[in-house]
Write a structure and sequence with these properties.
Layout (H helix, E strand, L loop, with lengths): L5 H7 L3 H28 L2 H17 L3 H15 L4 H26 L1
Length: 111
């Protein structure tokens, strides 16, 4: 399983309807945010890279998509630090796989 809803359940008190709303929002907004991240990587716009990674990270954390959260944290660090675009590209590529798998599982949860 690519996600763990423990944090979300703690926040919602186990309210499945609330959880479904949060997950639906994630499923609607994150693909667009991730496209923005990918465009920023292509443009080597480190400020935008940081902003998109920073936006995606807490949502991944809330939904227990830990590998994605860690990838976004590392991307943030590179974007603000050494500006290692090759590492950012590799992390972004790996994050694509994480997101695709999480999307499938989360879509199944809300159905």
């Amino acid at each position: 399983m690519k996600y763990n809803l423990d944090k979300l359940n703690e926040l919602s008190g186990g309210d499945k309807e609330f959880n479904q709303t949060i997950i639906s929002t994630f499923l609607q907004e994150t693909p667009e945010d991730f496209k923005g991240l990918e465009s920023a990587v292509v443009a080597q716009d480190f400020s935008a890279i940081y902003q998109y990674a920073h936006k995606i990270k807490p949502n991944a954390d809330l939904l227990g998509i830990d590998k994605l959260k860690d990838q976004m944290l590392t991307i943030e660090s590179h974007a603000r630090g050494d500006m290692d675009i090759e590492s950012i590209r590799a992390l972004s590529s790996g994050a694509t796989t994480e997101l695709e798998e999480a999307y499938k599982e989360l879509n199944n949860y809300i159905k």
